[in-house]
Amino acid sequence: MSSKTVTQTLNEAPLGLFHLRAVLTAGMGFFTDAYDLFIIGAALVLIKAQWHPSSAMIGLLGSTALIAAFAGAFIFGRLADVFGRKSIYGLEAAIMAIGAILSAFSPNVLWLLIFRFIMGLGIGGDYPMSAVLMSEFANTKDRGKLVSLVFSMQALGLITGPIVALTLLSSGINPDIAWRLMLGLGAIPATAVILLRRRMPESPRYLAQVRGADKQAALGLKNFAGTEVGIVDEKEPTRRLSLKEMLSQGRYWRLLLGTAGSWALFDYAYYGNSISLPLVIKSVAPHATDVTSIAWSLIIFAVAAVPGYILAFMTIDKIGHRRLQWLGFLIMGAAFGVIGIVPNLTHDILPFLLIFGISYFFAEFGPNTTTFVLSAEVYPTSVRATGHGFSAGVAKFGAFIGVFAFPLLVKALGLNGTLTITFVFALVGLLLTLLLPEPSGRSLEDISPVDQTPTYSKTGS
């Protein structure tokens, strides 16, 4: 067998069980992120009835975890590049578990805001960790599929939340207790993440390319994957790009504008609509009960969103990561535009749900998946978690604005006017996508070289 470096082995490895283990380990974190972020939408319906918060306070309750995620993604992303991925594996999940448990015991709105903020720090930290963990263990051919599979665990989190809410409410549990159970149950998958992540080795790519520890990287990969790794006499080239060096180069600002900008615009639309979805249903069908509005939310997630996630990971490497993103922005934006422009569409539940469902499908089969994937591919190994963390952090700030502003905008402009703004944001997100290279079919090292300007198109696409 010819001698290979650790990086060559990872890039050329056929799909194996160790890839599936990495998907599960990274994906459980993302399942927890999704459950914790989106369950607040169902809980808010009950919290509103118990504590009668103002529209501004409803926006804060829905968005506090997102503004915390903004900070957590920055902090943990940078720490993972400075101290190594394994130093952060599991730590962010512990913070999520603590925040979820404390949220369940909140005595009032103020304490709930504080505890959701704590949990949000862990959620933000998990974004770069889940993405980078998988992208650095993935092979070149299937990287998009594998990272998308991790992200598709969000679909399970999306539908688990409404199922938990419906189960608790239909069981006759006191609504004041039901919302506490909804929030507190997020600690269970977070605990599983802690156990899985602590058993993961340090990223072999990080060890070989940043620390120059080729033998340690090969041993860790062999123990995790059962793969024999031949180390060539000449070590892999290593270089640690400092944050100052990264921010002094225009090409990284271009990448950050493309990844963070498009992701923030998407999250403004997506989280504003998703977390407020039970409230959206209420505005379209004002006589619907709490159970009915949550049930409609579950139907939208299950019928429109889940197939979008599945089709995304099945086809992303064939279609192209960047191409799928702008295609999704285009059709998702068009759906929002139709809702915003067509008179009375927001007063007829079935046509509204049909068009809204199309927007959800192309959100998942598009930028909701690809923003996560692209941010884990286009930066060099030494600043990959930093770049992804920065992008995810800015995105969660966009999500915070969307969730906080959504009920206020609906009150001021109506649902039509609010979704017209979302339509404009989707078009701008499409344009920012064009700043990024096409990573499909290319190794991480080819996409994100440290010492030369990356090629911005594989085939002119």
Defining traits:
single chain, 461 residues, Growth Hormone, Chain: A, transmembrane helix, Sugar_transporter_CS, MFS_sugar_transport-like, MFS transporter, transmembrane
| Helical stretch tally | 19
Q: Which structural class fits the helix and strand makeup?
A: mainly alpha
Shape: globular
Rg result: 22 Å
Mean pLDDT: 87
Tell me the total number of β-strands: 0
Q: How many individual domains?
A: 1
Protein name: MFS transporter
Keywords: Membrane, Transmembrane, Transmembrane helix, Transport
Transmembrane segments: 34-51, 57-76, 88-105, 146-171, 177-196, 252-271, 291-312, 324-343, 349-366, 387-409, 415-436
Organism: Sulfobacillus thermotolerans
Short description:
It is found in: Cell membrane. With 461 residues, the protein is mainly α.
What's the arrangement of secondary structure elements?
Blueprint: H1 6-12, H2 17-51, H3 55-83, H4 91-104, H5 109-137, H6 143-170, H7 175-184, H8 187-198, H9 204-211, H10 214-225, H11 243-247, H12 250-275, H13 277-284, H14 290-319, H15 321-341, H16 349-364, H17 367-374, H18 384-433, H19 444-447
Helix pairs in contact: 2-3, 2-5, 2-6, 2-7, 2-8, 3-5, 3-18, 4-5, 4-7, 4-8, 5-6, 5-18, 6-7, 6-14, 6-17, 9-10, 12-17, 12-18, 13-14, 14-16, 15-16, 15-17, 15-18
Subcellular location: Cell membrane
Membrane topology: Multi-pass membrane protein
Main location: membrane
